[in-house]
C-alpha cells in the first residue's frame, strides 16, 4: 500500500467565513453571543474531552460501546465487504478499529479537523493493518462535507459517524450534512450513525456538568482558545460553566455565564459587554428521540433504516442505506 495521502478540504468560496477570527467575532457579537463548539478542541480541549469520555456521568461512550458490542454481528451481515471506510471525525482512530478488525475494510479514509491527530492515526493504522490503504482529509465539517473522492467509488462505501457528534449540528444542518454523505453513496453502501436521545433530566444535565468539574474546565478552556486566536482578553475566572436542557428544542446547551458586568476586548477594536448572569453559548448537543433521528435520515434521502439499541437507553446506532 502506498504512503497515506492527506488532502485538505477547502471551504466553499461563497458566503463562508474568511477565517476563524471572522467566525469567532461574528458569533461573539451576535445575540446571544456564541462560540462554535469546534473551538473547544485545541490540544488541551482534546485531552479534556478524552477525560470526559471516561467520567461516570458521561454515559454516551459506554452506551454506544454496549450497543455496538451487542449488535456488531447483525450489523456485519448488512455491511459490504472490501469497503472504503470513511471515518467522520476520526479523533484518535480508536472507534474505527472495530470495523478494521472485522476484516471488511480495504481502504480507510479519516476525516478530521486536527491534522496532527489525523496523521498519527494514519501512521499507526498503516502499521497495524498492512492490507489496508490509509488516507485522510483535514476538514472542518461545519463547512459541509469536503470529500475529494469520486462520487462513484470503485469499492463499496461505509460512512462511519459515531459518538453522536451529529448532535452538535442544528437539525437542518444535520440533514444537509447527511444528504451530502448520501450523495456519495450507491445501493449497497451504508451509513452507520450514532445519535444520542433524551433520557431522564438529571442524568442528561449531570453528563454535561460532572462532579469533578472536567466538563466545566473543558468549557472554560474555549476562552483561552479565543484569547489566542483573536488576541482577546477573556478572564476565565469571570465565567462559570452551566449545562441546561432545553426541552422544547430537545438539546443540552453549554453556557459560560458572566459572573459580573464586564467589557472584554476582542483584540480587534471591538468590545463585548456582558452584564452579570448574561451568557455565551458554546455548544448545542441535540438529543434526538428515535422518531426524530429517523426523520433526519429520511429527510437526507435514506429510506432503509435499521436502529440498534439496548433496553432502557435512548441512544441509537442507525444503519442507513439508500
Ligand atoms: C463530542 C459532540 C458528542 O455533545 O456529548 C461532551 C461533546 N460536550 N461534553 C457531546 C461534549 C460536553 C460531545 N460530542
TrEMBL record:
Enzyme Commission numbers on file: 2.1.1.44
Highest taxon of source: Bacteria
Record key words, sorted: Methyltransferase, Transferase
Domain Histidine-specific methyltransferase SAM-dependent span(s) in chain numbering: 22-321
SUPFAM superfamilies assigned: S-adenosyl-L-methionine-dependent methyltransferases
InterPro entries xrefs: EgtD, EgtD_Methyltrsf_superfamily, MeTrfase_dom, MeTrfase_EgtD-like, SAM-dependent_MTases_sf
Signal peptide range: none
Protein name per Swiss-Prot or TrEMBL: L-histidine N(Alpha)-methyltransferase
Species name: Ottowia beijingensis
Amino acid at each position: 500500500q502506498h504512503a497515506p495521502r492527506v488532502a485538505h478540504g477547502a471551504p466553499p468560496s461563497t458566503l463562508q467565513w474568511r477565517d476563524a477570527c471572522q467566525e469567532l467575532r461574528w458569533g461573539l457579537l451576535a445575540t446571544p453571543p456564541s462560540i462554535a463548539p469546534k473551538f473547544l478542541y485545541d490540544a488541551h480541549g482534546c485531552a479534556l474531552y478524552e477525560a470526559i469520555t471516561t467520567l461516570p456521568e458521561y454515559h454516551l461512550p459506554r452506551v454506544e460501546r454496549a450497543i455496538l458490542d451487542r449488535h456488531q454481528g447483525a450489523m456485519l451481515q448488512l455491511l459490504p465487504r472490501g469497503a472504503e471506510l470513511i471515518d467522520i471525525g476520526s479523533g484518535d482512530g480508536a472507534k474505527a478499529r472495530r470495523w478494521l478488525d472485522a476484516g471488511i475494510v480495504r481502504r480507510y479514509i479519516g476525516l478530521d479537523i486536527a491534522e496532527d491527530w489525523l496523521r498519527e492515526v494514519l501512521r499507526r493504522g498503516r502499521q497495524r493493518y498492512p492490507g489496508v490503504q490509509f488516507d485522510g482529509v483535514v476538514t472542518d465539517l461545519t463547512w459541509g462535507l469536503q470529500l475529494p473522492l469520486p462520487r462513484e467509488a470503485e469499492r463499496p462505501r461505509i460512512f462511519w459517524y459515531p459518538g453522536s457528534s451529529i448532535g452538535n449540528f442544528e437539525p437542518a444542518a444535520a440533514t444537509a450534512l447527511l444528504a451530502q454523505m448520501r450523495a456519495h453513496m450507491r445501493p449497497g453502501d451504508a451509513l452507520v450513525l450514532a445519535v444520542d436521545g433524551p433520557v431522564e433530566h438529571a442524568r442528561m444535565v449531570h453528563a454535561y456538568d460532572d462532579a469533578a468539574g472536567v466538563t466545566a474546565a473543558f468549557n472554560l478552556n474555549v476562552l483561552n482558545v479565543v484569547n489566542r486566536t483573536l488576541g482577546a482578553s477573556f478572564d476565565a475566572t469571570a465565567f462559570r460553566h452551566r449545562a441546561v436542557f432545553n426541552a422544547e428544542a430537545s438539546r443540552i446547551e453549554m453556557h459560560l455565564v458572566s459572573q459580573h458586568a464586564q467589557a472584554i476586548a476582542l483584540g480587534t477594536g471591538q468590545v463585548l459587554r456582558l452584564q452579570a448572569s448574561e451568557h455565551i453559548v458554546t455548544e448545542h448537543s441535540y438529543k434526538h428521540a428515535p422518531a426524530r433521528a429517523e426523520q433526519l435520515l429520511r429527510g437526507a434521502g435514506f429510506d432503509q433504516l435499521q436502529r440498534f439499541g439496548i433496553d432502557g437507553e435512548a441512544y441509537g446506532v442507525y444503519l442507513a442505506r439508500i
